[in-house]
Design a protein that fits this description.
Number of strands: 9
Strand content: 35-45%
Largest sheet: 4 strands, antiparallel
Helix content: under 10%
Number of helices: 1
Distance between the termini: 58 Å
Order of helices and strands: HEEEEEEEEE
Structural class: mainly beta
Strand order of the largest sheet: 5-4-7-9
Shape: elongated
């Protein structure tokens, strides 16, 4: 049974990595982010952390559902630079989540 499961797992296709992460609006505590949609994605996870933080553990994250390739990340703090990365998610048979996007950098307002 285990070998059959491994064969099924190996046939899954990794989703494309999200690209062109951009910020269309920044406030004191939010970033409005978008990226190019990934075919077959059923949602996205967006992670933000202050550049001064060493670890992504405990970072601020936001999720989207469906093909929506934008999100407003809230609960940030003013006058900071945030590192942002996006993962395409899939709950469809035959696909697995993407790799993380390249890190993008955006500033909240004063």
């Amino acid at each position: 049974i285990a070998s059959n499961l491994q064969r099924m797992e190996s046939k899954k296709v990794k989703l494309a990595t999200p690209t062109n992460v951009e910020c269309s609006e920044a406030t004191e505590t939010t970033l409005t982010l978008s990226w190019d949609p990934v075919p077959n994605a059923t949602g996205y996870m967006v992670m933000c952390k202050d550049v001064l933080e060493k670890s992504w553990e405990g970072c601020v994250s936001a999720m989207t559902e469906g093909s929506e390739a934008s999100v407003v990340v809230e609960n940030l703090y003013p006058t900071a630079t945030f590192e942002v990365k996006v993962v395409a998610l899939s709950n469809c048979k035959g696909y697995v989540d993407s790799d993380e996007s390249e890190i993008a950098f955006f500033d909240t307002k004063v």
